[in-house]
Amino acid sequence: MDFRQIVAGMLTVTMFLMLAHMIKRDHFDPPPHHHLHVNHAGRLDNSYSEQNFALGNDGQLWKPDDLTNVVLKPCWSKPVLEEEGSRGFVSFSLTNGPEYHISQIANAVVVARYLRATLIIPDIRGTQPGDWRNFGDIYDIEKFVNSLNGVVKVVKTQPSELSAKNLAVLRVPNRVTEDYIADNIEPAFKSKGNVRLATYFPSVNMKKSDDDWNSVNCLAMYGALELQPDVQQVVDSMVKRLKSLSLKSNGPFVAVDLRLDMLDKKGCQDINNGDVGGSKKCYTPLEVALFLKKLGFDKDTVIYLTQSRWDSSLDAIKDLFPKSFTKEGLMPMDKTSKFLESEEYEKVIDFYLSSESDVFVPAISGLFYANVAGKRIASGKTQILVPANIPPASSASVTNYVSQYVSKKSHMAYSCFC
């Protein structure tokens, strides 16, 4: 064998070894993880039965088995009235948006059942004087009545005999108790014959409860309210579009509750003297964007913001996540004149869309976050991340930012569903 043949042989062996190394690297070595990757297994209705979230340096964010989004079953037994006789009426209005509606409905049902009174289906009041609409404009009346059949008697319209003279108007705290009803509501009901309730919220109380009275609360909060078909269709079309965009980006779609008017009201002040990493009541667009980036969300992540219209202050999010949208860029054109000109419809869309997103990020603490969390827990969508100002040099473990409603199972939904 001459010198040229020896060199040719050596080159052949070298090329073979290099090719073998490339094949091994591509097929056996784990790929470098720098972004959040999501695999979807779709159903025919464009919803998703499985999601596999893998995160950067932390490996698996959630295991695939934890992301099947299996709808939980109600743990409560439907409480049936032992007495059919009605002794008056309970009336009320729904105000301030769906996160309040859920609690207002629950209070009214609990009070009406205790008093053996007939519940009058409420109207819906907006924030401006004279701004009101019928219950059926947003919610399904028949499903509401049927869900409460045997629990309380319900009428669809206010009886003609009901007047201000025989009506006691009472302010009632959220998650009213039997003792409170007996001491503060029943005497007025017996005196006047009818009561009108206005629920107030001394605190956001979503703690678990295992008492017998909880079955009525669970049914009223999670089994009574459903959107009427036209409104549900708009929500479904927006969810479908966002999920379609997220599939193209090979990532999740994230709903962020970020309303600029609420940020101004709360002031976004640090609770822990402004220390980095401390908890806050709310987070600015830039803080939310940096939080998501620090956790490893890819720049192509699709983000829905509950802010009504795009504002220049939201550019901080769009700079890092170009596929960020408000509802005006997603709603079907033939629906905008109706649904974008009404604050009540906008609130409903935000609430239910946040309940259906792949991931939910509450940039604002409060009842919206608490009641969206409840609906997500009930449907198995427990991917809720609470923002924080993560120090630049620290490693960001996503599991440290999962909502305590989920990580500690402290939400009342866990006493309603199993």
From TrEMBL:
Keyword terms of this UniProt record: Carbohydrate metabolism, Fucose metabolism, Glycosyltransferase, Signal, Transferase
Sample GO molecular function, one term: glycosyltransferase activity
Keyword Signal (UniProt): yes
Coiled-coil boundaries: none
One record GO biological process: fucose metabolic process
Signal peptide: 1-25
Domain of life according to the entry: Eukaryota
Family stated for the protein in its record: Belongs to the glycosyltransferase GT106 family.
Full protein name: O-fucosyltransferase family protein
Species of origin: Artemisia annua (Sweet wormwood)
